[in-house]
Specification:
Elements: H1 7-13, H2 19-31, H3 33-64, H4 67-78, H5 82-88, H6 94-104, H7 108-117, H8 144-150, H9 155-162, H10 167-172, H11 196-200, H12 210-223, H13 225-228, E1 260-261, E2 267-271, H14 277-287, H15 299-303, E3 322-331, E4 334-346, E5 357-364, H16 375-387, E6 394-400, E7 404-412, H17 416-424, H18 434-447, E8 454-461, H19 472-483, E9 488-494, H20 501-510, E10 515-518, H21 521-530, H22 532-536, E11 538-549, E12 556-560, E13 580-583, E14 587-595, H23 619-625, E15 634-643, E16 651-658, H24 669-685, H25 695-703, E17 707-708, E18 711-712, H26 714-733
Parallel strand pairs: 5-6, 5-8, 8-9, 9-10
Antiparallel strand pairs: 1-12, 2-11, 3-4, 4-14, 6-7, 11-13, 11-15, 12-14, 15-16, 17-18
Helix pairs in contact: 1-3, 2-3, 3-6, 3-7, 9-12, 16-17, 16-21, 18-19, 19-20, 24-25, 25-26
Length: about 750
């Protein structure tokens, strides 16, 4: 059969495929421009018919269509037996659209001109959908389909109620307090408590009996299927492209670390960082043929995105939770300088040995999440995690928009269908009161707290908090307070255009968790399946690094990246100071650029001589006054402090590194690849410390080190392609760039 006439293609275009079928069809469409155009055409016709016919046609002819009639129509329309649709469980968005399509025969000629002049992406996999910028405060046009949704019974509210199906479960849910309390004497929606209809459809009728709401919602769910479904597939197998020309995305300013004189500042102290969000976000920009904002490039997160073959600690869970290794060579961007790599490797584990998990999915269902690359992708991502859950694991779902509520109380991991059904019923709409959701999620996690287990809130959002507590400072303080409960936080970012990276990074840091950006189902699999142990199971918290440099061995140093993680020297021994966490199997990499004695530093900062103390002594004189150990053959001493996940007192490791000379080509493959990633980041940031580094040089280094244990690593290969894209974009912006 011609692929264009395959009924699966129509079902895919209308968002009706699920699971593996959806992923396979998504990959097929992305690779074939003709199929992509066909899908876009189906969506456009469906949308135009829906807008033209409105709700009345659906509620007349559509509701009268019986299942047998629908099967007969399918059989005649798609050249497949009716039973095929039943066996494959592929349904159109209810009978409403079918009625619309039949009635639409009369008006299709009138719609052709509208469709042909609309902005429909017809290119291949990299087609870009132009999205007009949203103007704050301006009245937005309301389509016929939107009016149908806004005036309909509160479908999303009853969807959420149906996710907790029994009467006893309804009593446990927050919806029983507000959304389910539908009497004719009392308004259904209140400011306090949870109201899914208020979250997704603020203008829904405010008075309805609970039993009537359930009945109406089921018929409305059939008659209004098209109005409630999004116009793009929920699952993307590869990183997506999109319009990022006009946006309100927010990134914290990064001021690059300067070189420090060892005789003045021999100690360098910082908190570790296992976040990977920056690399995935940079990838999103480059795949959209745009250079990322400078402040979106956090070099340590780019370096830590990749796997390295560091030596793991020996022993069981009671032993040291991570091992330390170090390496040095000449810096590839300035061979007169040294490059030092510090590596931490977390203890490995597996699904069977992992402690029982008590998870709360805290999901943003506000209006800003309605884009297909936000809530629909989010649902698919969480389903991957649900598939990994065991009988001893539990999950609850809390949502927030204008207010918050518990969609699904804590549920055993064996009830996967129930959990996924609750995810499927979520719809987006309304403002964003993140603080309300955070409170509800932590309260829910505490109710099912597992002593000695994994207790974690997983916040999934674009970070666009706009009502309630919106101040970054207040939200961070709220998370800091909640982190004391023993419940950790992971933050998953979704979407583009209004992505608030700044606040999400801070929340993850203060919540004893990690921050990842999900731009595709492939990235979701990496974070929530392949690296689930690191994402969920913390093996060491408040991990701090302090490096003491030997003034007899070198004159200055700079830490590459970690600008937002710097600590004061005295913070290292202060157990009240918060720091980063290491998860099961995590690797952490830090790079220092070190300047040996005798090398002239053109960028070295200087200060005026002090009036009240002498700073005129030579380096040789300073060395004479140094401690006896300064004359040793050590370049530096690494110190690491950490706490056990349930501990309050830190332990300390201390490891020296000898001062050696080694060419960059003699370094290990992991060392060289990490250096190429750091170089990539410096070029994207146009760092003043990049020396003579070029994209061609970084590409050459990366190409030689894409293999891990003899096998080409897919993520390293992907970075090669991103390097080439970035090179082209830089050359286009600056014709003289190399």
């Amino acid at each position: 059969m011609n692929q264009k006439s395959d009924p699966k293609l129509t079902a895919f275009a209308l968002g009706e495929l699920e699971g593996e079928e959806e992923i396979q069809m998504s990959q097929m469409v992305e690779k074939d421009p003709e199929l992509k155009a066909e899908v876009d055409s189906i969506k456009a016709v469906a949308k135009a018919l829906e807008a033209e016919l409105g709700q009345s046609a659906k509620q007349s002819a559509a509701e009268r269509l019986e299942p047998a009639d629908r099967d007969a129509i399918f059989a005649k329309t798609v050249d497949r037996p009716a039973a095929w649709w039943k066996s494959k469980s592929v349904l159109f968005p209810a009978s409403g659209l079918l009625a619309a399509l039949f009635l639409g025969v009369l008006i299709v000629p009138q719609l052709q001109q509208q469709i042909s002049t609309s902005q429909i992406p017809t290119g291949g996999p990299t087609a870009v959908r132009q999205v007009p910028p949203k103007q704050e405060g301006a009245a937005q046009p309301v389509t016929t389909a939107q009016k149908a949704v806004q005036t309909a019974p509160p479908v999303a509210e009853v969807d959420a109620i149906a996710a907790v199906s029994t009467d006893d479960e309804l009593k446990e849910s927050s919806y029983d307090k507000a959304a389910v309390a539908m009497t004719e004497e009392e308004p259904a929606y209140k400011d306090q408590g949870a109201s899914a209809a208020q979250l997704a459809m603020p203008s829904a009728p405010s008075m309805m009996k609970k039993s009537e709401a359930v009945r109406v919602s089921r018929s409305a769910d059939m008659g209004m299927g098209m109005a409630r479904r999004r116009q793009a597939p929920a699952v993307m197998s590869e990183p997506v492209t999109a319009d990022v020309e006009t946006n309100t995305e927010a990134y914290s300013h990064i001021s690059e670390n300067e070189f420090k004189q060892i005789k003045d500042q021999p100690l360098s102290t910082f908190s570790i960082d296992v976040d990977t969000a920056s690399y995935a976000n940079v990838r999103r920009f480059l795949n959209s043929s745009k250079l990322p904002p400078v402040d979106a490039v956090r070099i340590e997160e780019m370096v830590n995105y990749f796997r390295y073959q560091y030596v793991a600690p020996k022993g069981g869970a009671s032993s040291q939770p991570f091992a330390v290794s170090m390496e040095q060579s000449a810096a590839p961007w300035n061979p007169r300088h040294k490059l030092v790599r510090i590596g931490l490797k977390g203890r490995e584990g597996n699904l069977e040995s992992r402690p029982a998990s008590n998870l709360v999915f805290l999901i943003d269902v506000s209006g800003s999440m309605e884009d297909p690359l936000k809530l629909p992708l989010l649902r698919s991502a969480f389903k991957l995690l649900v598939e990994q859950m065991r009988a001893k694991d539990r999950v609850a779902i809390v949502v927030y928009a204008g207010s918050s509520g518990v969609v699904l109380p804590s549920t055993p991991g064996t009830e996967k269908e129930k959990i996924m059904s609750a995810l499927d019923r979520l719809q987006a709409g309304g403002s964003t009161n993140g603080a309300s959701g955070i409170q509800e999620a932590y309260d829910t996690a505490r109710k099912s707290f597992i002593k000695g287990g994994v207790n974690r809130v997983i916040l999934a959002t674009d970070g666009d908090f706009n009502v309630g507590t919106t101040s970054e400072g207040e939200l961070v303080r709220l998370i800091e307070e909640k982190a004391k409960s023993g419940v950790f936080l992971s933050v998953l970012g979704f979407g583009m255009g209004n992505y608030k990276d700044s606040i999400m990074q801070k929340l993850a840091g203060k919540g004893n968790g990690n921050h990842a950006y999900i731009d595709s189902i492939r990235e979701a699999k990496k974070v929530l399946v392949e690296q689930a142990g690191g994402t969920l199971n913390t093996i060491a918290k408040d991990v701090k690094i302090q490096v003491e440099f030997n003034p007899a061995a070198a004159q200055s140093y700079r830490l590459i990246g970690y600008e937002k993680r710097m600590l004061n020297a005295e913070d290292f021994n202060d157990d009240t100071k918060d720091a980063g966490e290491i998860g099961e199997g995590h690797t952490v990499t830090a790079l220092y650029e070190v300047v040996p004695h005798g090398v002239i530093q053109e960028t070295a900062p200087s200060v005026d001589p002090l009036k009240y103390s002498s700073t005129t002594e030579t380096t040789q004189q300073a060395e004479t006054k140094a401690a006896p150990s300064a004359s040793s053959d050590e370049l530096l001493t690494l110190k690491v402090r950490y706490k056990r996940p349930d501990g309050d007192k830190s332990d300390k490791l201390e490891v020296p590194l000898k001062n050696e000379s080694r060419e960059f080509a003699q370094a290990t493959s992991d060392f060289q690849f990490a250096a190429s990633v750091a170089g990539f980041g410096m070029l994207l940031r146009d760092s003043k410390n990049k020396g003579d580094l070029t994209f061609n040089q970084v590409i050459s280094i990366a190409e030689k080190n894409v293999r891990i244990k003899g096998q080409a690593d897919e993520y390293r290969l992907e970075m090669l392609e991103l390097l080439k894209k970035a090179k082209s974009l830089k050359e286009a912006a600056q014709p003289t760039a190399q």
